[in-house]
Amino acid sequence: MSPPVLDVVDLTTEFALRGGGAARAVDGVSFSLARGEIVGLVGESGSGKSVTGFSLMGLIDPPGRVAGGSVRLNGAELAGMDAEGLRARRGREIAMIFQDPVATLNPLLTVGAQMRMALAAHARTPRRAADDRCAAALARVGIPAARDRLAAYPHEFSGGMRQRVAIAIALLHAPSVVIADEPTTALDVSVQAQILVEMRALAAETGLSLIWISHDLAVVSGFASRILVMYAGRVVEQGPAEAVLRAPRHPYTRGLIDSLPAAAKPGEPLRQIPGGAPSLGALPPGCAFAPRCPRAAGACRAAPPVETREGARAWRCLFPLEAGA
Amino acid sequence: MLGFVIQRLIQAAAVMAVMSVIVFVGVYAVGNPVDIVIPPDATQDVREEAIRRLGLDLPLWRQYFLFVGGVLQGDFGRSFIYNEPVLSLIAGRAPATIELVLISVLCATVIGVSLGVYAGYRPHAPLARAIMALSVLGFSVPTFWVGLILILTFAVSLGWLPAGGRGETVLILGVRWSFPTLDGLAHIALPALNLALFKMAMMIRLARSGVREIMLTDTIRFARAAGISEATILRRHVLKLIAAPIITVFGLELGSTLAFAVVTETIFSWPGMGKLIIDSITLLDRPVMVAYLILTALLFVTINLLVDLAYAAIDPRVRSGEAR
Ligand SMILES: Nc1ncnc2c1ncn2[C@@H]1O[C@H](COP(=O)(O)OP(=O)(O)OP(=O)(O)O)[C@@H](O)[C@H]1O
Ligand SMILES: [Mg+2]
């Protein structure tokens, strides 16, 4: 097997709190990403998915900081790398797209101007050649009459098309990794499905690796080959998508699956995980999920469970569900 | 875009028509200038002759239309006091005010926006804190007091700069200007600084809050995620995104300072329009008052129009929104 494109070990990101101390938004996250692989990162709102993405990009601003761990991108260690080194890799080796395409593109600049700016960040290109490359990038993500559209402003595109423009910008330098932070959440369902299909084809075709962030397990389940489930800053379970969905080991994953609309019988109310997500400032000393967990026992409240690995799967739980249950 | 301009021009003309009525009626209500223009010991004949000559015997609406008819031919009437065409009276004073105000508002904007952008980009740096302290000072100290302090410091104690007057002037396009000569610039420095401080404080605040807000948006995050350098982000994204409110305030400040630079002009004995309008009010010089107020209204309407055009030039959404 070829070495992973991205190898993350024990990534920890903290935000300094006003009264002193720090909130760990990302706590000991480890995973790796193979070439062409799609990993789904799921979890409730506030579980640390976006902060994980920004940490990988080296885009955590004070009062936050990456407090520890290692991130190897194409073999180069990003932890401790200087600002210029990180900038030179952003957009070229690792790129990111966001949830709201209305907010990501600058409304005052033409799409072409924004694309050329992204191009110029890593490659000096004469104007004509730059326009050719930008138009080709737009065409690749399914924007018709791409060459003419370079002169258009973002508000002249629909939401789905705007997100395609953002994707085209992210793919401009053919990065090895793209972090997609809920990029289809703001779009309607049919556009969402189209984009998912196209992105998967792109990954298969070009060997692009994707980290697809979503709070919606249903979106990720049919799309990603591997799933990471986050809870309160920790990856509580990870493994091949199909295996995790069929036989989750962590009670939280089980809860997420059970609360999917598809899991409910027609006419029955959806099942929800009781309680709410804990606040980062006041995490329990043990497993953060223990207060909401039907299986929790005294030991769960003593210390956070360490990761148990079994083949391609891993979980953080003292009393995991049976394999195959 | 052309439709947009025409529509705004029509609006501007309507505003001007309404303003002229308000100003004319308002000034009419202020008082009767006859008693000031005519010596108290004049005979009844002389009095009535003067009233007729000034057109004060006509009903108000006829006076108004006579006035408007004159204005449309570029004639604002003659000053009661100086017995000179009002327009040439104002034109004689305007350059002094214009150069003073333009220099101060431009400096305030360029320096204020630069400092504000820095303070918004690095809000926790010591220099940023110093800039914000400066802006609080600029806001809270009254202009006339700063003017006096400036004179006492730089003119009286240090003797570096003159305390008043326009200094050496040169004739350009038939008008006298101070700014092209060193001596003239030395004379402009203190009053311009005096006028600029408050505006600079405002520009600092405006730019800083704009930058702080924009730095947190996904637009900037996305640009950073694409590997675009910080300098390019500031230049291409941030400056453009904060421009709209700054242009608005620039326009308003330019207009209001041109019209009402009285305090500073008085302190620094700057022979601009401020003194002219104060005199015309105390002497009930009706033609000067009316012309001045109408020209001020015209100034604001024009600036407003230019600001709107600048908006449309910056923001494509404004352009297409107005075209529809
Ligand atoms: N700039 C910041 N300062 C302080 N705390 C922050 C900051 N950014 C994020 N956090 C905290 O980090 C935690 C994780 O946030 P994150 O945005 O990663 O959640 P998420 O999983 O992406 O949620 P969502 O699905 O709502 O996007 C949250 O509790 C949040 O309060
Ligand atoms: Mg998020």
From TrEMBL, chain A:
The keyword Protein biosynthesis does not apply. The keyword Metal-binding does not apply. SMART domains: AAA (SM00382). Residues 6-257 form the ABC transporter domain. Signal peptide: none annotated. One of its GO terms (molecular function) is ATP binding. One of its GO terms (cellular component) is plasma membrane. It is found in: Cell inner membrane. Keywords: ATP-binding, Cell membrane, Membrane, Nucleotide-binding, Transport. Gene3D superfamilies: P-loop containing nucleotide triphosphate hydrolases. InterPro entries: AAA+_ATPase (IPR003593), ABC_Ni/Peptide_Import (IPR050388), ABC_transporter-like_ATP-bd (IPR003439), ABC_transporter-like_CS (IPR017871), Oligopep_ABC_C (IPR013563), P-loop_NTPase (IPR027417). GO terms for biological process: peptide transport; transmembrane transport. Pfam families: ABC_tran, oligo_HPY. Belongs to the ABC transporter superfamily. PANTHER family: DIPEPTIDE TRANSPORT ATP-BINDING PROTEIN DPPD, OLIGOPEPTIDE TRANSPORT ATP-BINDING PROTEIN APPD. This is Peptide/nickel transport system ATP-binding protein.
UniProtKB/TrEMBL annotation, chain B:
Residues 94-311 form the ABC transmembrane type-1 domain. Keywords: Cell membrane, Membrane, Transmembrane, Transmembrane helix, Transport. GO terms for biological process: transmembrane transport. This is Peptide/nickel transport system permease protein. The chain crosses the membrane at residues 12-31, 100-121, 133-157, 177-198, 241-270, 290-314. The keyword Transferase does not apply. It is a multi-pass membrane protein. One of its GO terms (cellular component) is plasma membrane. Signal peptide: none annotated. It is found in: Cell membrane. Belongs to the binding-protein-dependent transport system permease family.
